[in-house]
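[Q] Does anyone have a clean structure-token version of this?
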Amino acid sequence: MKYQLICGAEIHVELNTKSKMFCGCKNDPFGADKPNIYTCPVCLGMPGALPVPNKKAIEDCILIGLALGCKIAKVSKFDRKHYFYPDLPKGYQISQYDEPLCYEGLVETSYGPVRITRVHMEEDTAKMHHAVVGGKKVSLIDFNRSSVPLVEIVTEPDIKSSEQAKEFLKKVRDIIRTLGVSSCDMEKGSMRLEANISLSPDGNLPNYKVEVKNINSFRFFANSLEFEYKRQSEILDKGETPVQETRGYRDGRGTVSQRKKEGAADYRYFPDPDIPPLVIDDAWLTTIKSRLPKLPDAVVSELVAAGVIESAAKIIVNDSTYFQFITKIQELDPALTKTAANDLVNKKIDSSISPEEYIKNKKAKAGEKITDETILKPIIEKLISDNQPLVDQYKAGKTGVLGFFVGSVMKATGGKADAAVVNKLIASLLN
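[A] Here you go.
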């Protein structure tokens, strides 16, 4: 190809904390019954209202950074990022600039590594709604989303193809879902993507970039790269340089120009005077690290080592329900890992069954005696309910009928019920 695609990604992820980033308002922008019900002077940007950082959100941001292989700053701070738009009531966004919480991470892909520049914490904006009211076109603002905790993940310009972009973005989504700190639901907007795209004739970083904002699917992200490659190639072929600008993606149309691209100087960053610097000491960091679960890549490797084919292992880690099920099996009974993985992929496991029940059933089928009272008791209770005349005989002193109940339980369990446990349970339930 004549030009090398050079792309860096920006990923915005809304955290699922109970409260917002800098106030005590409920964090539930997608479940609110009405607009503007989860608001207060802080998230409405009222003069004199003071922000108080959400400790849980900061910890969740650091957890994401750790999972992405980042270093964690000993000292971090919040900054004010100034720009004027109706969805930003203060006229600035509380974000982080030169001292983020996390930096210098790495995510491996089959097309090469993608370096993580930074993972930082900020607040989300309000949400604009364009509608017709009284016959007039108007723009309405819902502040339920204003100040929702938002993590921004910024990469180096290491993405060289649309295929690599999709693999990388899916990996990041799966890691964050595994951490349990966000749903990463792109349809609702709890995960949003931006691409910084350039072309280079020699692989070196050129002196321009085009940013495509507010992309809400991996497919659209890949399409943006392919569209921009063609558009920018045509401009470069004429000996011209593409305009550094912000564009949006429209399905079926490609990218469309929105405005001239801002630089850091345009935002007039400075430290937020209302929020002291954050000091992350070793004790606090150790506590956060203790929350790290097994990550998808590690689980895939473990499953393959247990004899599961790689394609099946990847299906499991890409499904949150399967992932949770198999990691519990690994914890409770590692010997059943391969069997459980194959049953999951071949849909031989009922969605309502727990890992504990699955293990019990497998062991029972393997010929082990059933001693678990939670399995045997329902069988005995049904026999008692269905055979009231025999129950009456037993209570009248004819204890020989116990043999009927014991035999019936053994028949129902294929002879695998533990006779001693069965006798004890029948006696307790009949008396």
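[Q] Thanks! Anything notable?
[A] The CA atoms of residues 171 and 366 lie 37 Å apart.
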